[in-house]
Amino acid sequence: MWPQVLQHVGRVGRVVMTGTRYWPVDQPQERLRATLTLIQEHYPAKRAWVLHHGGCRGADIAAAQVAHTLGWAVRVHEADWNAVGIHRKAAGPIRNREMVNSTDATTYLVVHPKTDDLEELRKVRGSGTADCLRHMFRHPGVTFYVVTDPV
């Protein structure tokens, strides 16, 4: 998939997503499909799409599966849980920061069943989604899409 994406450098849409590990992957994902399709339609000049995610179970896997069916490339940014010199709990936040800062994305997808209020989600202590949102909010001029229910 990457060679096709690289043919369209400059016309590649990049979406960084974050979401709950408890998202039901065994259900139909109509809302995710509709949202990713809406993103594509919102940017018709883009010729290829890449979904960036953290490789966690739940929402990351569900979104990646839907993206694949739409012909998107998928880039996984896994946390290095065994990195020397960092505390294990820091691996996820480090991955989130690097994923958000390195992709040049202008569109963010948040998948979480609790609320579509991003400010409320951002304040949840100990949440990987909240941590990722804090990094996302540091980038002005981006567009957020929120999915709160699979169907």
Protein model, in words:
This protein has 151 residues and is of the alpha/beta class. The chain has one domain (12-147): Rossmann fold (3-Layer(aba) Sandwich), CATH 3.40.50. The chain is built from 6 helices and 5 strands, in the order H-E-H-E-H-E-H-E-H-H-E. The protein has helices at residues 2-6, 30-42, 59-69, 91-102, 118-122, 128-136, and strands spanning 12-19, 48-53, 73-76, 107-111, 143-147. It has a 5-stranded parallel β-sheet, sandwiched between helices. Helix 2 links the parallel strand 1 (12-19) and strand 2 (48-53).
SSE map:
Layout: H1 2-6, E1 12-19, H2 30-42, E2 48-53, H3 59-69, E3 73-76, H4 91-102, E4 107-111, H5 118-122, H6 128-136, E5 143-147
Parallel strand pairs: 1-2, 1-4, 2-3, 4-5
- Order of SSEs: HEHEHEHEHHE
Q: For the record, what CATH class applies?
A: Alpha Beta
Query: Helicity, in percent?
Result: 25-40%
What is the count of β-strands? 5
The share of residues in extended strands comes to 15-25%
Overall morphology? globular
Count of DSSP helices? 6
- Gyration radius, rounded: 15 Å
| CATH-scheme architecture | 3-Layer(aba) Sandwich
Class computed from helices, strands and strand pairing: alpha/beta
Strands in their spatial order, largest beta sheet: 3-2-1-4-5
